[in-house]
Design brief:
- The chain is an alpha+beta fold and 391 residues long.
- It folds into two domains: 241 residues, Double-stranded beta-helix; 117 residues, no CATH class.
- The chain is built from eight helices and 22 strands.
- Strands 1, 2, 3, 4, 5, 6, 7, 9, 20 and 22 form a ten-stranded mixed β-sheet that branches. The chain has a four-stranded antiparallel β-sheet with strand order 14-13-17-18. It has a three-stranded mixed β-sheet with strand order 8-10-11.
- It is globular, with a radius of gyration of 20 Å.
């Protein structure tokens, strides 16, 4: 009897890793596939993979050293039928020093211009790029009250900035982001800090995630109703607007008002291209509600009374930040955070429209290099608002 070729399988990660986060699964490729090739998947395998991303948030495929960088841009089409052939951050890498997205000194791969090289350390002659001086960003450069030297010496770390991969101007955020680990630093584990004094062990340089669905579950019924009836307006050229701002100790919001750039100091912009999204997004795969807010970039809120239909605009920035933080801070606890421990060769795909993520880790005092590929393709589909009434 001929041997039956095993199909693609998805195995949720152990409970002690997932905890209450609702995040994390490993993808076991079909017997016939050593390196992940989206175009070679069967229709059934594609369906399984797509549903798994929407259900588990983060998917990990081990041992993928040797894949072509173009694979990362092809992944987007598995999850988003309206994926565009351009990185959500634009055709070219952001290099303007006035924009916080330029601070990691990353660069696009010439043979795969939608794929970005990120990491830490000097790299010569890589993928047709003469010289890279990659910088691993951490809380010391962005937080209002960063960790002390003593805390860093003791192995403490924090999230840098919680976000979705969303430009918030012109291009719409992609459904999925892919990251491939080429070289991983071998550094002792560190302790992720929480405002209430708790901590959790994480791999140095771990990528942190929390689920917008889990965040929504933690809201009171009144908060859920408010969130489902509210639209978030983001600032023009948001990442340039907050270039001089400093974040809270958990990386969820901007700590204080006054360092934002004046609108007339920003690169040319127009309101038609500045994005506003529902506060709660509907999961494309399972219909669940996800609280999705880029807290550091919020500008105003428009909320509608579900009974009268009357809308009000909240445009006091401090109040806007306070409201958003009061909702998102509920999820920032050890049991709700999934911290991916990178291994060389990992290919990670995550649900960019259902999670928020952040880099972590204090790596600057170690000589180890870190080299990764990242890709998040722009979408042609707007986020769908979740309707709490089910109508």
């Amino acid at each position: 009897m001929p041997h039956k070729i095993a199909a693609l399988r998805v195995v949720p990660l152990d409970t002690h890793v997932r905890k209450s986060s609702q995040i994390g699964a490993q993808v076991i490729l079909p017997d016939s596939m050593t390196l992940f090739t989206p175009q070679a998947l069967t229709e059934n395998d594609t369906h399984i993979l797509r549903q798994a991303l929407f259900d588990h948030g983060v998917l990990v495929i081990r041992g993928q050293l040797g894949i072509a960088p173009q694979i990362l841009s092809e992944i987007a089409k598995v999850f988003d039928p309206q994926a565009k052939n351009v990185h959500s951050g634009g055709k070219m890498q952001v290099t303007d020093s006035k924009n916080i997205l330029s601070q990691n000194n990353c660069s696009r791969i010439p043979r795969a211009p939608q794929v970005t090289v990120i990491g830490k350390g000097d790299v010569e002659g890589y993928e047709g790029i003469p010289h890279l001086e990659l910088k691993h960003l951490d809380q010391s450069s962005f937080h209002e009250h960063p960790l002390s030297d003593d805390e860093i010496e003791r192995g403490c770390t924090r999230p840098y900035r919680w976000h979705m991969d969303a430009p918030l101007y012109e291009s719409l955020p992609g459904f999925a982001t892919s990251i491939h680990a080429i070289e991983v630093p071998h550094v002792p584990d560190q302790q992720l800090q929480f405002p209430d004094g708790k901590s959790m062990p994480v791999a140095a340089g771990a990528t942190l995630f929390f689920s917008g669905a889990r965040n929504f579950e933690l809201l009171s019924p009144e908060e859920q109703e408010f969130a489902c009836n509210t639209t978030v307006q983001y600032a023009p050229r948001a990442y340039e607007w907050i270039r001089n701002c400093k974040a809270s100790a958990d990386g969820l919001t901007i700590e204080s008002l006054g360092r934002e750039k004046a609108f007339n100091e920003l690169l040319e912009w127009n309101w038609e291209e500045v994005q506003a999204f529902p506060m709660v997004w509907k999961n494309h795969g399972n219909g669940k509600p996800h609280l999705q807010i880029l807290g550091c970039c919020v500008y105003s809120l428009t909320t509608t009374d579900p009974v009268t239909g009357k809308s009000i605009v909240i445009d006091d920035i401090q109040e806007v930040r306070r409201i958003c933080y009061s909702l998102q801070s509920k999820v920032y606890a050890p049991e709700n955070i999934f911290a991916h421990r990178w291994e060389q060769g990992d290919l990670v795909m995550f649900h960019n429209r259902g999670l928020l993520h952040s880099i972590s880790g204090q790596l600057s005092h170690y000589p180890d290099k870190r080299l990764m590929w990242q890709c998040s393709m722009a979408s042609g589909a707007l986020p769908e608002a979740y309707n709490i009434t089910g109508a």
